[in-house]
Amino acid sequence: MTLHIVKVPRRPNWPWWAVAIVAAHFALVAAVSVVSSSVGSEPDLCLFHRLTSVPCPSCGATRGVKEILTGRILAGWGYNPLLFTVFSVFGAWLAVRLAFGRSVRLIASRNERKVLWALACAVFLGNWAYLIGHLR
Amino acid sequence: MEQWHIIVNGQQSGPISLEELKQRIDAGSVTAKDLVWRQGMQQWQPAGSVAELFDAGQVPQGMPGSYLKPHRGGAILALGILGLLVCFVMGIVAWVMGNNDLREMTAGQMDRSGEQLTMAGRICGIISTVLAIVGCAGSLIWFIIMAVVGIASHS
Fold first, then answer.
1. Measured between CB atoms, does A103 come within 8 Å of chain B?
2. SS3 B118
3. Which CATH number is correct for B3-58, 3.10.50.40, 3.40.50.150, 3.30.1490.40, 3.40.50.10860?
């Protein structure tokens, strides 16, 4: 298994409508969060949590961002370690791509891919277990 | 003059001219399955799929020498399901990846054995995105109605 730095077009080939929907969603969550904070009540934005009382694998993101924006980076990261790690790696990848037109290409055999998938599932479930223990 | 970049056995090299690339193809050091890219291409492509480098008759589909990208059906289905259960953003990623991969499968550039998985993941992604949009729109309307009712009751 090897990682290669390859040349790619600087601008990712993402459809504008998908970017617009995701941006609108985050803007709406931010607006609701700001308004509710000023009123003094914190609504539960997660449907999964409201239905099951169990935090979903992405729970803690809004609270984490609030902590990070106030300078408490480690505390914010602790709300959902996997999510913030993925966001950081994604942000770094996007910045490098936009600035230098470079990306990373993983070349792995079928068996190596299976191992990577198993590792990803284990990390995902481990992070979820951590959230259930900490955010419930 | 067009400058080409190539990936052979995982090693990237270039830029090289079209003539030099054709010489390498003739010499067999670059095959139809190796990836090539030049300015203006959206992404790396197998050399065999680039008409300037290989004639269509030289690389018959499905024959040794032609290259099919491995499908990502499993990943797309996983993202689609996570979009439904966890966060619709993963669903929208599944939708976009599904669209791109189905297009490549139709064009004969990707392994078609994952078509059903890709289709299922794409549909899950579409459903999760539509549900999220409907939910957000409903919440927004409810928020506006409550604000209007609140203002009316105060005045």
1. no
2. helix
3. 3.30.1490.40
